[in-house]
UniProtKB/TrEMBL annotation:
<dbReference type="Pfam" id="PF01152">
    <property type="entry name" value="Bac_globin"/>
</dbReference>
<dbReference type="GO" id="GO:0020037">
    <property type="term" value="F:heme binding"/>
</dbReference>
<keyword id="KW-0408">Iron</keyword>
<dbReference type="GO" id="GO:0046872">
    <property type="term" value="F:metal ion binding"/>
</dbReference>
<keyword id="KW-0479">Metal-binding</keyword>
<dbReference type="InterPro" id="IPR012292">
    <property type="entry name" value="Globin/Proto"/>
</dbReference>
<keyword id="KW-0813">Transport</keyword>
<protein>
    <submittedName>
        <fullName>Globin</fullName>
    </submittedName>
</protein>
<comment type="similarity">
    <text>Belongs to the truncated hemoglobin family. Group II subfamily.</text>
</comment>
<dbReference type="GO" id="GO:0005344">
    <property type="term" value="F:oxygen carrier activity"/>
</dbReference>
<keyword id="KW-0349">Heme</keyword>
<dbReference type="GO" id="GO:0019825">
    <property type="term" value="F:oxygen binding"/>
</dbReference>
<dbReference type="InterPro" id="IPR044203">
    <property type="entry name" value="GlbO/GLB3-like"/>
</dbReference>
<dbReference type="InterPro" id="IPR009050">
    <property type="entry name" value="Globin-like_sf"/>
</dbReference>
<dbReference type="InterPro" id="IPR001486">
    <property type="entry name" value="Hemoglobin_trunc"/>
</dbReference>
Length: 127
Protein backbone atom coordinates (compact mmCIF):
# COMPACT_ATOMS: atom_id res chain seq x y z
CA UNK A 1 0.00 0.00 0.00
CA UNK A 2 1.40 3.36 -1.06
CA UNK A 3 1.38 6.15 1.51
CA UNK A 4 0.16 9.50 0.21
CA UNK A 5 1.04 12.78 1.88
CA UNK A 6 -1.71 15.26 2.75
CA UNK A 7 -0.21 17.39 -0.06
CA UNK A 8 -0.93 14.63 -2.57
CA UNK A 9 -4.35 13.87 -1.06
CA UNK A 10 -5.61 17.45 -1.47
CA UNK A 11 -4.43 17.65 -5.08
CA UNK A 12 -0.91 19.05 -4.81
CA UNK A 13 0.31 22.33 -6.26
CA UNK A 14 -2.89 23.02 -8.21
CA UNK A 15 -5.09 22.88 -5.11
CA UNK A 16 -2.63 24.91 -3.02
CA UNK A 17 -2.59 27.57 -5.77
CA UNK A 18 -6.40 27.73 -5.85
CA UNK A 19 -6.64 27.85 -2.06
CA UNK A 20 -4.12 30.68 -1.70
CA UNK A 21 -5.78 32.64 -4.54
CA UNK A 22 -9.19 32.27 -2.83
CA UNK A 23 -7.82 32.98 0.66
CA UNK A 24 -5.77 36.16 0.36
CA UNK A 25 -8.41 38.50 -1.08
CA UNK A 26 -10.54 37.54 1.95
CA UNK A 27 -7.71 38.22 4.40
CA UNK A 28 -6.71 41.53 2.77
CA UNK A 29 -10.31 42.79 2.96
CA UNK A 30 -11.27 41.43 6.41
CA UNK A 31 -11.64 44.33 8.88
CA UNK A 32 -9.80 42.50 11.70
CA UNK A 33 -6.96 41.31 9.47
CA UNK A 34 -6.51 44.18 7.02
CA UNK A 35 -4.11 46.08 9.36
CA UNK A 36 -1.72 43.10 9.31
CA UNK A 37 -1.78 42.55 5.57
CA UNK A 38 -0.30 45.53 3.78
CA UNK A 39 1.88 45.69 0.71
CA UNK A 40 2.47 43.21 -2.06
CA UNK A 41 -0.14 40.45 -1.91
CA UNK A 42 1.68 38.45 -4.59
CA UNK A 43 4.81 38.01 -2.43
CA UNK A 44 2.74 37.02 0.62
CA UNK A 45 0.83 34.54 -1.57
CA UNK A 46 4.08 33.10 -2.96
CA UNK A 47 5.42 32.49 0.55
CA UNK A 48 2.13 30.97 1.71
CA UNK A 49 2.08 28.56 -1.26
CA UNK A 50 5.62 27.49 -0.40
CA UNK A 51 4.79 27.10 3.29
CA UNK A 52 1.54 25.15 2.76
CA UNK A 53 3.25 22.87 0.25
CA UNK A 54 5.87 21.97 2.85
CA UNK A 55 3.36 21.96 5.76
CA UNK A 56 1.32 19.28 3.96
CA UNK A 57 4.30 17.06 3.17
CA UNK A 58 5.15 18.28 -0.32
CA UNK A 59 8.49 19.62 -1.49
CA UNK A 60 10.42 21.69 1.08
CA UNK A 61 10.08 24.89 -0.95
CA UNK A 62 9.81 27.22 2.04
CA UNK A 63 12.85 25.88 3.91
CA UNK A 64 14.89 25.74 0.72
CA UNK A 65 14.49 29.51 0.27
CA UNK A 66 14.02 30.88 3.80
CA UNK A 67 15.34 28.25 6.20
CA UNK A 68 13.23 26.57 8.88
CA UNK A 69 9.67 27.93 8.93
CA UNK A 70 9.74 29.01 12.63
CA UNK A 71 6.34 30.60 12.01
CA UNK A 72 5.72 31.81 15.55
CA UNK A 73 9.01 33.72 15.60
CA UNK A 74 8.37 35.14 12.11
CA UNK A 75 4.94 36.41 13.21
CA UNK A 76 6.03 37.95 16.55
CA UNK A 77 6.29 41.50 15.10
CA UNK A 78 2.53 41.38 14.38
CA UNK A 79 -0.22 41.66 17.00
CA UNK A 80 -2.04 38.37 16.62
CA UNK A 81 -5.03 38.32 18.94
CA UNK A 82 -7.62 35.59 19.58
CA UNK A 83 -10.05 37.63 17.44
CA UNK A 84 -7.57 37.76 14.57
CA UNK A 85 -6.93 34.02 14.92
CA UNK A 86 -10.64 33.39 14.59
CA UNK A 87 -10.92 35.75 11.58
CA UNK A 88 -7.93 34.12 9.83
CA UNK A 89 -9.46 30.68 10.30
CA UNK A 90 -12.86 31.91 9.05
CA UNK A 91 -11.20 33.21 5.88
CA UNK A 92 -9.47 29.86 5.42
CA UNK A 93 -12.75 27.95 5.88
CA UNK A 94 -14.42 30.21 3.29
CA UNK A 95 -11.54 29.68 0.85
CA UNK A 96 -11.73 25.90 1.33
CA UNK A 97 -15.49 26.07 0.67
CA UNK A 98 -14.96 28.25 -2.39
CA UNK A 99 -12.54 25.82 -4.05
CA UNK A 100 -14.58 22.75 -3.06
CA UNK A 101 -12.01 21.20 -0.71
CA UNK A 102 -14.00 18.58 1.19
CA UNK A 103 -13.80 15.36 3.12
CA UNK A 104 -11.46 13.91 5.72
CA UNK A 105 -8.35 15.53 4.23
CA UNK A 106 -9.94 18.98 4.48
CA UNK A 107 -10.86 18.30 8.11
CA UNK A 108 -7.37 17.08 8.99
CA UNK A 109 -5.73 20.03 7.17
CA UNK A 110 -8.02 22.54 8.89
CA UNK A 111 -7.40 21.00 12.33
CA UNK A 112 -3.65 21.39 11.82
CA UNK A 113 -4.17 25.02 10.77
CA UNK A 114 -6.23 25.61 13.93
CA UNK A 115 -3.30 24.34 16.00
CA UNK A 116 -0.84 26.59 14.18
CA UNK A 117 -3.17 29.60 14.47
CA UNK A 118 -3.45 29.02 18.22
CA UNK A 119 0.34 28.98 18.56
CA UNK A 120 0.54 32.30 16.63
CA UNK A 121 -1.55 34.23 19.17
CA UNK A 122 0.83 36.61 20.92
CA UNK A 123 -1.39 39.50 22.08
CA UNK A 124 -4.60 39.52 24.12
CA UNK A 125 -7.73 41.07 22.66
CA UNK A 126 -8.22 44.66 23.81
CA UNK A 127 -10.63 44.70 26.72
Amino acid sequence: MEFKTPYELIGGAETIQKLVEAFYPKVFSHPDLKPLFQGDMSEIMRKQKMFLTQFLGGPTLYSDEFGPPAMRARHMPFEITPTRRKAWLACMREAMDEIGLEGPIRNAFYERLEQVATIMVNTPDPS
